Amino acid sequence: MRRLTAKALFAAVLLAAATPAAPALADTQTSGYIVLLKDGVSVPSVTNLAGVTVENLYQSAVRGYSARMTPATAARLARDPRVALVQPDGIASIAAQTLPTGIDRIDAEQSPTARINGTDERVNVDVAVIDTGVDLDHPDLNVNTAGAKNCSTGRSADDGNGHGTHVAGTIGALDNGIGVVGVAPGARIWPVRVLNNQGSGSFSAIICGIDYVTAHANEIEVANMSLGGSGSDSACGSNKDAMHEAICRSVSAGVTYVVAAGNSSANSSTFVPATYAEVITVSALADFNGQPGGGAASTCRADVDDTFADFSNYGADVDIIAPGVCILSTWKGGGYNTISGTSMASPHVAGAAALYKATHPSASPSAVKSALQSAGTSNWNSATDPDSTHEPLLNVASF
Description:
Pfam families: Inhibitor_I9, Peptidase_S8
Shape: globular
Organism: Lentzea flava
Structural class: alpha/beta
Helix content: 10-25%
Signal peptide: 1-26
Number of helices: 7
Region (Disordered): 377-399
Oligomer: single chain
Keywords: Hydrolase, Metal-binding, Protease, Serine protease, Signal
Radius of gyration: 20 Å
C-alpha cells in the first residue's frame, strides 16, 4: 500500500491515500483487516482464532477488532455466522499544502462565548483532535494529558509531525496574550493519535480513535478529523464500511464530528469520512487578510483572496466553508507555523461547534450542524465554487 505523507513544515491537509489493502497476496502472507461482529456477539469469543493476530479491540463505537491474517483466513472468517463484516484495512494520511486571519474572518473576536480579550478566560468544552497527536506541553494549549490516547506508532499521543498541534491551536489556543488565539480559547483538547510522524495511518487506527472518543462521549462534545482516504458513502447499519459504522454510533452517542473535505480539487463523494452524511464536512476558503471583499495580496502560497481554495474538494457532501489558506497556529515543540489545507479549515468549524455546545449542551450533532449552517453567511466569492451547491461561510459572531 502506498502511503502519502505531509511535507515538513508545509501545510497539511489530509486526504490522500486510502485505497484499502487489496487481498492479492499469497496465502502465506498476512495483511490488515477490520472485523465487525453481529449484535450480541462477544468480542473475545471471535478473537482467539488460529491465524488471526489481533491489534485493536472495538467495543464502544462498534463491536469487533482489527487484525492481521492471510486472505484465506479472512475469507473463512467472513463466512462465520457471528461476523457482520471483514474489510481490508486502508490507509489515511495528511496531504501537504500551506493567523489567525481565519479567526478574524469568522468573527470569533465578536463571540460572547469566546470572549477574546487577552484575559485567558476559557471556554468550558472538550474537543478531541483525532490526528497526529498534540504537543502535550505546548504553552498555548489547554491539553487534557490524562485523556490522551495513542492508537498509532510511538509511545504516547505526543505530536511528532506538527499537524495535530496546528489543528488544536485553531480550535482552542489560549487567549493569553502570547502566540495565537483559537476559535474557542482554552477548550480542553483531547489528543487522540491515529497518524504517525509522517502523517499516515491505517483505517483500523482511526477506528481505534473513534472508539476511544465514543467511550468518553459523556465528556467529549466535539471531535475533529482533519484526515481521510479514498472511499464511498454507505448507510448506517449496512455494515459495508467499518469506519462509517463507528462514526454513526459515535454521533448517536452525542459527539459532533467535523471533518476536512480534502485537498484533491475533486468531489468529496469519493473520500471518507468527508462523504458521510453524519459529519460536518468543511471546504477551504482562500483569505489573506481576514476581511471580505477580495483584493488582498497572497502571502504563503499562490491563490486568490476571498475565493474557493484552489486545492479544496467540493460537492454536495460539503456542509460549510471556512478559512484554510495560510493559517497561523500552534506547532510541535512549543512553536508556531503557517500552513494551508482543508485540514486547517475543519478546526475553525470544530471550534465553532465547541462554542455552540458550550451554551447549548443538550444540542444533538444534527442540531449543531444546522446552527452552524444557519449562522453562516454568503459573504464570499461563491461564484468560484466548482459546483452549484454554494456552502455558507462560517461565522460565529452570534455564538
